[in-house]
From TrEMBL:
UniProt-listed PANTHER family: ABC TRANSPORTER, ATP-BINDING PROTEIN
InterPro entries, alphabetized: AAA+_ATPase (IPR003593), ABC_transporter-like_ATP-bd (IPR003439), ABC_transporter-like_CS (IPR017871), P-loop_NTPase (IPR027417)
A UniProt-annotated Pfam family: ABC_tran
Swiss-Prot/TrEMBL keywords: ATP-binding, Nucleotide-binding, Transport
GO molecular function: ATP binding; ATP hydrolysis activity
UniProt similarity note: Belongs to the ABC transporter superfamily.
Name this protein carries in UniProt: ATP-binding cassette domain-containing protein
Occurrences of domain ABC transporter (ranges): 5-236
Length: 282
């Protein structure tokens, strides 16, 4: 793998709380999913990579550039798209105005070329016919696509997406998956999410974070396989592990000791993820 992003020993604290703990990570072309529970440090990592937050220690190199050095940071920003967790839209702007505003901040100076680029990214996310619609009149899914559109300005080689599919209905999520997988064909996409189905569907690699550390790094299939032999279907309510009652009236158990009559079932990415976090044993 040719690395476009290399992170070494990245640390960040807020007061006495360590949010990133000497994190190492390398990214190449393709879509990498970033999974982790609330507070694991995902957004903090993404903000450091997006150059909106300075780490306390450690190094980042993205496209060979060091965001700690001012002129390199400026150059890097031109090659980087960021969809933040809370884009903070201005509701009375139209979709076009909003993306144009970000384009101005990104220093796309030539007005005609800038407007062409705004129309291009709106078309890329399927919002060409909504350019004149006020942001407050767009649906949640359309706003998420608008947030993606601004991240695509200037065709960045690195895309950092913080929970882009949160709150979307299944059809919108599918549209987003399709968009993101296409984008990952020739660029580096880091996608933070709580949706293990999205990771299984579109990420060739998945990194699991917990307490500011990387606790898994591999393929989604590898993460699922790591739960092999630890997922069961049983007839009686189990005494341990994480479980739920299935529609057929049996119990699907993750972790815990197998009981007589337990039938092993194929684990999912979610099973592997939960076991990595040590939830069943907790
Ligand atoms: N500016 C800040 N000041 C103080 N604490 C902060 C700040 N930003 C984040 N934190 C804390 O750092 C921890 C990690 O936050 P972060 O947003 O990186 O987690 P996350 O993995 O993205 O979580 P989520 O899935 O909930 O978005 C949390 O406990 C959060 O409350």
């Amino acid at each position: 793998m040719v690395s476009t992003v290399v992170v070494r020993g990245l640390s960040k604290r807020y007061g006495s709380r360590t949010v990133l703990d000497r994190l190492d990570l390398s990214l190449g072309t393709g879509v990498t999913g970033l999974l982790g529970p609330n507070g694991a440090g995902k957004t903090t990592l993404l903000r450091c990579l997006a150059t909106t937050l300075a780490p306390d220690a450690g190094a980042i190199r993205a496209l060979g550039l060091d965001p700690a050095v001012r002129d390199q940071r400026t150059r890097l920003r031109a090659s980087l798209g960021y969809l933040p967790q809370d884009p903070g839209f201005i509701p009375h702007f139209t979709a076009f105005d909003l993306v144009d505003y970000v384009a101005i901040l990104k220093e796309l100076k030539d007005r005609r070329a800038r407007h062409r680029e705004v129309r291009r990214v709106l078309a890329e996310v399927g919002l060409a016919d909504r350019a004149g619609t006020k942001v407050r009149r767009l649906s949640g899914g359309m706003r998420q696509r608008l947030a993606l559109a601004q991240a695509l300005l200037g065709s960045p080689r690195i895309l950092i997406l913080d929970e882009p599919t949160v709150g979307l209905d299944p059809e919108q999520r599918m549209r987003f998956r399709s968009l993101i997988s296409g984008l990952g064909e020739d660029r580096t996409v880091l996608l933070s999410t709580h949706q293990t189905e999205d990771v299984a569907a579109l990420c060739e690699r998945v990194v699991v974070m917990s307490d500011g550390r990387r606790v898994f790094d591999g393929t989604p299939a590898g993460l699922a396989a790591s739960a092999s032999g630890q997922v069961w279907l049983v007839g009686d309510r189990p005494g341990g592990g994480l479980f739920w009652r299935t529609a057929e009236g049996r119990f699907r158990v993750l972790g815990g000791e197998p009981v007589p009559g337990a039938v092993a079932v194929e684990p999912s990415v979610e099973d592997g993820y939960l076991l990595r976090l040590g939830k069943p044993a907790a």
